[in-house]
Amino acid sequence: MKLLTAQELADKVFGGTARMSTDKLYRLANKKRIPAVKIDGRWFFPLEEINAWIKVESQVANTAEVMKGYGRLRVIGE
Predict the structure, then answer these.
(1) How far apart are CA 69 and CA 78, in angstroms?
(2) In this structure, what are the phi and psi dihedrals at residue 46, rounded to the nearest 5 degrees?
(3) Got the DSSP string for the chain?
(4) pTM of the model
(5) CA pair distance 18, 30, nearest whole angstrom
(6) How many C-alpha atoms does 52 have within 13 Å on its Cβ side?
(7) Judging by beta carbons within 10 Å of its beta carbon (0-12, 13-18, 19+), is residue 74 exposed, middle or buried?
(8) How far apart are CA 58 and CA 55, in angstroms?
(9) What band does 10 get if pLDDT is binned at 50, 70 and 90?
(10) Contact 9/45 with Cβ under 8 angstroms?
(11) Residue 62 pLDDT exceeds 70
(12) Contacts 24+ apart (CB under 8 A), 14-17
């Protein structure tokens, strides 16, 4: 399981902090609205679960289709 920091998640999956701020990711994690784990006071985001979460939240059967149409969400392989 690959864990990402909030900055890595914002950069690699959401295309940078202009589209998804790290503060927003922390708020979502605190509210348990995004897959995350807190280790020693720091939030980490499991990549596989984030990709699955994006697929469910976007209500798209194939996340690759989102990439083609909008280019905003990216599925990152391990």
Answers:
(1) 23
(2) -70, 120
(3) --EE-HHHHHHHTSSSTTTS-HHHHHHHHHTT-S--EEETTEEEEEHHHHHHHHHHHHT-S-HHHHHHHT--------
(4) 0.71
(5) 21
(6) 7
(7) middle
(8) 5
(9) very high
(10) yes
(11) no
(12) 14/72, 14/73, 15/71, 15/72, 15/74
User: How far is it, in rounded angstroms, from Cα 60 to Cα 56?
Assistant: 7
Q: Which residue has the tokens 């969400």?
A: 73
- Within 10 A of 57 (CB to CB), how many other CB atoms are there? 11
Q: Between these two residues, 78 and 18, which has the higher pLDDT value?
A: 18
Output the six-digit token pair for 12.
């690699």
Q: Which two tokens stand for residue 29?
A: 């994690």
Joined tokens for residue 74? 């990216």
Distance between CA 14 and CA 54 in Å, rounded?
A: 10
